[in-house]
Design a protein that fits this description.
elongated; disordered C terminus
Length: 543
Amino acid sequence: MTPVVIASLLGGIGLFLLGMWLMTEGLKLAAGGALQAVLESWTRSAPRGFLAGVLITALLQSSSAVTVATLGFVNAGLLSLAQAVWLIIGANVGTTMTGWLVALVGVKIDVTALALPLIGLGMLGRLAFRGRSRLFGAGQAMAGFGAFFLGVGVLQGGFADLLRDVGPLVTGDVTFVSLLAALALGVVVTVITQSSSAAIAIALTAAATGQIPLAMTAMAVIGTNIGSTSTAILAALSATPAARRVAMAHVIFNVTAAVGALALLSPLLWLSGWLTAGFNPQGETPAILAMFHTLFNLLGALIMALMGSRLIAFLQRRFVSAEESLAKPRYLDSTLAPVPALALRGLVLEVDRMREAAFAMVVHRRGAKEAGAAMAEGRLQPLGREIRNFIGTMSAGPLPDAVANALPDVIRAVQHLEEIERMSLRLRTPPPGITAASTSWARLRQALADSLNGPGANAAELELACTRLIEVAEQAYQKVKTDLLQATARGVLPIDQLDGALDLADALRRCAELAAKTHRRLGPWEGHPDTAHEKAQRHAAAE
């Protein structure tokens, strides 16, 4: 292999990648906000999501760009898992358009005669419309198409020279090892270029020489499908659990399509040749491979469609975060709503689980060095919404007096717990200077601990015990507040630390007060025999 051949191959690949980048970025600019609009409006059903993925990828010539954009929309909550999965499947089918461009245009005409005018006109448009983003983007995309086709021409010449040098190594008998090597090569090239479209174009351009066996180039095309999963995997490493599920769907689809293609390699190649015979009478390899690529991706889409809701259910159980686990009700079920007594039992158990989570946040935050560190607001809100929705379903029918009387207390308990979560963001370990300014900090912290632990009183004494907890916390807070103000007046506590110290004391007081109020609201309804029994079982299991 001479340096000239190496230079031709590297230059051709570089032109491919440059053309793909210019096309993708230019078409994004030309589309403006249309991409997001299409993603949001065309994905309301599985067929529309699939079609949107096909069309957007065919236009952008980059399934990787669509995949990364989809992960971003899922991260932002703009797309559900089911919508994103079908968009990804459509994107993988849409990426087959690159093969058709190479097969029907790139290797059939004088690419230099086509490419150079496109580059010239595109760059002139880019310069002329610099302040007008859509026309600027259209010019850039046109130049990208030119660079893409020019890369095809350079690679054609480079592969022809390469095969003259190493032809016997590639054009000999097809063996199991040679097929595996072709598959691995397709994977590696796609991972390196981070573009399955570019890798497919390279494979089809090499096949256009007519010296590489059809089965080997088909294996390389299958390898590009497997290699394209690397983009989604890399993009999902720092993404949300929802985006990781979408990336996993992308991997499942590509691997499924690849396995189907490997299992049906000979029948699919024969069918591809038969389907292309009408417009490809000479049986040219690129057209057959483009059809083969389309067919096995459609096969993968069909398999995914047959899996349907089971696939979505499988994905939803993967990468479940602590927040998602907390947000999912454990004791509420739509079948309970028509039976008020059972529904109330489930509600009390669910709110008790919410209480445990809220109190755990307070304990965690109480030992943090900075307010708000390592804690995001709103972790309890999804569960609170689920509880409210369940209460709404219950209230749609007639309720016994006992259940009707309990629901206001349950709702208030949920509100108290959501407020505790917000208050917990203000907690932290007080600095030594603030601690030394009042000897009553220990009393205030103990009042909070007592409120979190609960009054431990029977139903008859619950009201009095909870009121006492609130009074103790208030008295401790007032003493700390007075000490802090006096310490500031004496110059013991710097005045710039006073507001933070008072805020911390108020947060401790408010958390203690809200905890006691929660106990007071839930206490009368926790005495139900079934509820108490299930709660005991749950605590025993946790221990």
